[in-house]
Amino acid sequence: MRLTHLVVTLLILGIQADTTQFTPDQADWSTFYSKPIAVGNTDHSPNGVFWLKDSDWATWDGTIYRPNEMDHDSFKRAVCPRTDVIRGIREVFYEHNPFADVHNPTKGEVDEWHRIALNHLRALVGYTGPEHEAKKDHCMFIRALWGQERRFTTKWDDKYPGTFDSAYGPCVGGSNAHCGATFVPDEADQAPYLPPGHAPCGTTGGGSEGCTAAPKSDIPWSIKWSRAACTFIWSEGFWGGHVGPFFHREKFGFSFWDTDPSNNGNNAHFRGKWTGSLAPNLYPKEDAPVPVPSDVPAGCHHLFVKSVAGHGSFIQVAVDGITFTQQSDAGRGINVFDVDPGTLSVLNFGTFDTYGEMDSAGAALASFIDNIPAGHIVMLAVKDASSPRLLGPPPCRMP
Questions:
Q1: What's 287's DSSP letter?
Q2: How many CB atoms lie within 10 A of CB 187?
């Protein structure tokens, strides 16, 4: 299927450009303006990126890339020919000219550019209807910043104690990439971050979070976010747990944090928050190539899930009399693998953010496991680990 560039552009827009600022004033972007220029970029537009040649900017002719009809490598290179370039993104930038001053774009202009660019990414796979339109959300932008402040500073630690390196925090000195994910200060402390008249932010309503240090601090604003999206796509493919919200969640909020302001070449930490409705996935998940974790126990079979229950800060999953417990405060979710007992190949795969949104994630996890046929191997693995790691005792019984 092919669409004219004009029609695609109109569909991508969805709503009229709105440069209202969503990133809070408290977010320190000073080095994100100075570092790109210091290393040789001329400004924050695509043409200002010194290391990308004209041939590096892949154009888009309107072709829809269907991930269930492509292998992983073909799909990732079609959508993201490079990890810092989304196909067609330069043309989209100059169609909208989102930055009045390409040397010093405002936070509101950058926020709006991220909305436009995110909807362009969705258009590449044919997601252009209202149900697939990405929208900015004040609480998501603000909560993303609170998560960054909680993880990288001690600003909130005295007033808000908690379990160290957990989803709530405190975090400094820990290793949990999602530390701070569920942190929300009280209404009085929220007030300076909120627009006038905006209701306080909470943790209800469902959603997810993605964190990566892929964006560098010296990359111009026009493509800084692309490093996050494309790195996830390259590593996980269309059906990856971090990738899904980029294509399917209604509301978003991004935050970027410079962990070493004195270093021009350091990575910038990206935290993306997602909420709102979950648009339908038009491409069958079962076509996703999912690798089996390296520690699949050979010869295991006939596992039957008995129950899934959430209890405050943890999920319990009982499989054939063995109970597994996943602490939500661990800051990681659960991956579930449905494995063929004969071939040990993954037949289906689900990923669930059981930290934070315990009730909704627990219900989704229970529903997923309920649909796994009796006799299949059921494996539970830590979500967001560098490689899948099985939870608890071996989730199988030997013949």
A1: G
A2: 12
Contacts of 144 (CB under 8 A, 6+ apart): 209, 253, 254, 255, 271, 272, 273
| Contact assessment for residue 328 and residue 167, using Cβ atoms and an 8 Å cutoff | yes
pTM of this prediction exceeds 0.85: no
Classify residue 197 as exposed, middle or buried by CB count within 10 Å of its CB (0-12, 13-18, 19+). exposed
Q: What is the dihedral of CA 364, 367, 369, 372, to 10 degrees?
A: -140
Nearest to 211, CA basis, from 259, 273, 152, 275: 273
pLDDT digits (tens, 9 = 90+) for 323-341: 444 444 444 566 676 766 6
Q: For residue 250, what are the CA distances in angstroms to 58, 135, 210, 307?
A: 27, 6, 15, 31
What's the rounded Cα separation, in Å, for the pair 318 and 383? 18
- Spell out a b/e string for 346-374, using b for 16 or more CB atoms within 10 Å of the CB, else e: bebbbbbbbbbbbebbbebbbebbeebee
Give the residue ranges of the chain where pLDDT is below 70.
Answer: 1-16, 205-206, 285-335, 337, 339-347, 349, 351-367, 369-370, 372, 374-399
